[in-house]
Inverse folding.
């Protein structure tokens, strides 16, 4: 191979590396920015709830603000302080509710819309009406290898309890009554036929990712 050809190949490879590096940096920066914004918003909502609700809900909120780490062991308060000023001024529009499952050490904001970007940050609302309204409120989250989001969802069994809190502090407890798997294109679990009851459905991929784990819960 001629020296000139080697130089051209070298220049091409260097260009590819530079372009890929820039692309990767933008992706990481975007995810970090979204993460900081979401958890700053969560912190703002929880502090507002803590100021206006009753003692039982105050205890729910204070435990998270003071003691509980959420997603990647990042405390709500530290997530807020690490975000920029623009993030801290965000209105509470992207967070839809909060989910707590004591057995799994889960306390997480639930993002209003299900998108690939949002799912990288926290579980999202997949289907249903307003949180804790009549019907079937469905939440989907990733099954991650580092025990984040819904990676421990498979540990839930019938009789376990999950709590869902809306942005005003209204909290409802739900009891697991059914755990099963479906094909990834089966959306029957989103049914809103609940006989006028409140239900909560939690969804994630199985370890092999070719099926979905469904945890159905009903109001206690």
């Amino acid at each position: 191979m001629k020296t000139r050809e080697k130089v051209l190949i070298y220049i091409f490879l260097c260009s590819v590396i530079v372009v890929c590096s820039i692309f990767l940096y933008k992706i990481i920066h975007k995810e970090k920015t979204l993460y900081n914004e979401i958890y700053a918003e969560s912190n703002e909502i929880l502090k507002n709830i803590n100021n206006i609700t009753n003692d039982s809900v105050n205890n729910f909120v204070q435990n998270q603000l003071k003691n509980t780490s959420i997603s990647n062991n990042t405390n709500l308060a530290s997530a807020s302080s690490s975000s920029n000023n623009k993030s801290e001024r965000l209105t509470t529009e992207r967070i839809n509710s909060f989910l707590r499952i004591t057995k799994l050490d889960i306390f997480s904001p639930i993002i209003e819309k299900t998108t690939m970007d949002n799912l990288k940050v926290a579980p999202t609302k997949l289907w249903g009406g307003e949180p804790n309204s009549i019907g079937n409120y469905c939440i989907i989250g990733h099954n991650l290898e580092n025990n984040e989001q819904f990676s421990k969802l498979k540990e839930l069994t019938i009789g376990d309890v999950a709590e869902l809190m809306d942005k005003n502090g209204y909290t409802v407890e739900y009891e697991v009554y059914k755990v099963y798997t479906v094909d990834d294109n089966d959306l029957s679990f989103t049914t809103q036929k609940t006989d006028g009851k409140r239900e909560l459905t939690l969804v994630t991929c199985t370890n092999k990712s070719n099926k979905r784990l469904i945890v159905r819960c009903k109001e206690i």
